[in-house]
Design brief:
The protein is built from 23 helices and two strands. By secondary structure, the chain is mainly α. The protein has a two-stranded antiparallel ribbon. Helix 7 crosses helix 8, helix 9 runs parallel beside helix 14 and helix 16 runs antiparallel to helix 17. The longest helix is centred in the N-terminal third of the chain and has 37 residues.
Length: 530
Amino acid sequence: MEAGQMHDKDKRMLHALGYAQELSRRMSGFSNFAISFTIISILSGTLTLYATGLNYGGPIMEAWGWPLVSLFVLIVGLGMAEIASKYPTAGGLYYWASKMGGPVWGWFTGWFNLIGQIAITAGIDYGAAIFTDALLSLLWPGTFKSTPHEIIYVYAAILALHALMNIFSVRLVALLNDISVWWHVLGVTIIVAFLVLKPDQHQSVGTVFSKTINNSGFSHSWLWFVLLLGLLQAQYTYTGYDASAHMSEETHNASRAAARGIIMSIAVSAIFGYILALGVTFAIQSFDRTTGAGIFAVKQVYLDALGSSTAKVMLFITVGAQFFCGMSSITSASRMMYAFSRDRAVPGHQLWRRLNRERVPYMAAIAIAVLAFLCAFPAYFSKDIGVGAGYVAYAAVTSIATIGLYIAYAIPIFLRLRQGDAWEPGEWNLGRHYKWIGTIACLWVAFISVLFIMPVTPTGIPWNDSFTWLSVNYAPIAVIGAFALVGGWWLLSARHWFEGPIAQGTPEELAQIEARYGEPGTVGPATSGA
């Protein structure tokens, strides 16, 4: 099919979903995969939470925990991909839930998706600020000291730069997304090659695949629970691949490309993420120094195994990948907020759905950056960031992001299961396999949603004699609070006016909307399984 015909097909499908082609459809299938792969970012999540995996389980968590989580995440991704093929719209998950379950399902899905998007942006860019400051402290010792205040300043600068790039240079963002794929793949290859070839000593295969470490504070009899908590490292890494759905209104051949983008981003990340996790673990020179470094564990591995000069290069590669990741996260989150506002679900919706000359929801991009900054700003008041309260606070942010997003991922999959064989699939579908895939996906999300609100240290348990508020896992407070706020808002107000996705008008009215953005007219009737 020629490019013009494909563009016309995509636009007809979007019209059938009720929307005009306001966003610019420039993205290839590879670019769609690239944005999800970039947001997953194995050089971000795998390394920023490496200390979690190491202290909550040890090397065995990298050797066995990563592939275990990868398998279940791929199953969740398969369930999402089938639905993305049928409904290729920037609204993504909340649109799917609204169409299959009604406004109330769409309301809860949309808000948990948006909350998760904001929290994941905070987690990504705050992690990038930590690694950036670690690099700066190596380049200019004594000038940069990795204090909580200093990291917040770096964090603010990174968020501001990402917002500006998304607003004023959409072509640069698209180009960097494509470059990011190769940066990640080659970056992992270079880092692992140095870690394997340069150090004089490595951990043995037996150690990596059998050694456990429990620095959680829980007794050895609770090791099974500690090992489960360590799964957060991998599960947090696998977030943000819903970007392929949110970018579908800007993607050619969206019905197939969005589904493939979701699946391939998970599959490629699983392979290269496992190589990275094992490479770093084999290169550990001292478990005591590495675990004692807290969130700077990877920096310690680089220094011990490679020396200061090479460690700077490895950190530069890592920081570059994390920069790409945060940039793409704001791109995806702004599209979701734009689509949710298009259907009047967000306060001030007329503001957040505005587009600039680049056909970018610029006000939504600013809002995501500001809200993400506020999400991590409490770390400014921590006494430290590497260990203790600062470390617990960062773990809570990542837990909130993971739970929020995966609840939003699971709801449409559950609704698709509920519709059964009566559901009409899109161009890419699971056939009869949807039943076992959807069931396992929902059970896994339910499991991790409970797991990651559990106390992460004995001093964070209220009835413990050594309880301290600085050690509390605030994820359950945030998640339960979000349920109460969103649910209360629904009962008191939203159920009277939120109707789910709102069609923008007749074909003629859609054409008039598109004409304002220089979009050529569509030939032929709209056809889709909407």
